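Collaborator request, handled under Task 6.
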Amino acid sequence: MVAKPPRPPPLGGQGGAREFPVAETYERVTKEGTSAGAVPRRAVTSSDGVWELALAGLGILALFLPTYYDLARTVWTDPHEAHGPFIIAIAVAAGVARWRAFLQARGSAPIAGTCALIGGLLIYVLGRSQEFLVLETGSQLPVVAGVILLLKGWQGLRVYWFAVAFLFFSIVWPGWLIDKLTVPLKQAATNITVNSLYALGYPIASTGVEIQIGQYRLLVADACSGLNTMISLLSIGILFLYMIRRTNWLWNAAIILAMPFIAFFANVVRVMALTLITYHFGNRAGQSFLHDFTGVFLFAVALGLVFLLDFAIEKIVELFGRGRANRGAAS
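C-alpha cells returned to the collaborator:
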C-alpha cells in the first residue's frame, strides 16, 4: 500500500478559505501597483484645467478689450476715474494668485452659469451699442461669474468671489447719479465747515455750496464732495480686509460701514483747511499745489484711521476674550 501524502491544511486554518483584511488588500494593491494586476488611478494635479482657465481668461479679455481701450482714451484720463485700471489689475492679480485653489474645485453649475453668461453678454451688447457705460462696464460681473460657474461651479465661485466682487469698483456710473449723490455731500460739508469756523469767530457765511470768508468766495466743487474719497477708501479697505483673511464677518462689517463716515470726515477737514488757507494766505495759495496736496494727505490720514480702527477692534476683542477666560477659570 502506498502512503498518501498528508493533506495540506485549509487556507483559513480550521475552516474554509483564508480571508484577507480590507486594509491589507488595499496596502498590497497600493504597494504592488500594476504587478498585482491593479490599475492605479491617476492623481488629480493642479495642471488639470489650466488650458481651459487660460482660454476663458483670454476670451473675457478679448471681449472687454475694446471697452478698456475706449475708457483709457476718455473716462480714465479724468483723475477722479483713474482708479479704474488699477481695480481691474488687482482683480486679475487676485485671480492669478488663487488659480491652483480654483483648479482643485470640483463640480459645475451649467444652468446658473449659462444664465449669468448670456445675461451678461446681453447687458454688454446693450451698453456697448447705446454707449451706456454703466451697463457696459457692469456686465463684467455676470460675464466673469458665468464663466466661473460653467468651469468649476459654486465651489469655483467661492474661490474667486473677491476677484468678481472687486470689479464693482470699476463700474463707470452715469453723471446724473453722481450729481444726486454729490449735491447732499457737498451741502453737508459746506454747512459743517461754515458752522464750525463761525463758532471759532471767523467772518464766514454760505449760500448753497458757496462759502464766503472775509473777502474771498469759495465754491465747493464735486471733487470736494468726498464721494471719490469714499470709493477709493472702500476699495483699498476691502482689499486690506481680504489680504489679512479675517474670518470674523461682524468685525469686517464694522470696518466697512465705518469707511464712508471716515472718508466724509476727512473731506470736511480738507474743506476747512482750504478755507483757512485761502483766508490767511490768499486765493492764490488756496488754488496752488496745496489744493491737491491736502486731498492726498487727508486720504492717507483716512486710510490710517481705518487701520487704527481695525487695531482698536482687535484690542477690544482680545480684552473681552481675556475677561471671559478669567470668569470661566474663576467659576
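The cover message to the collaborator said: "Residues 111 and 212 are 61 Å apart (CA to CA). Residues 50-172 form one domain. Please let us know whether this matches your experimental observations."
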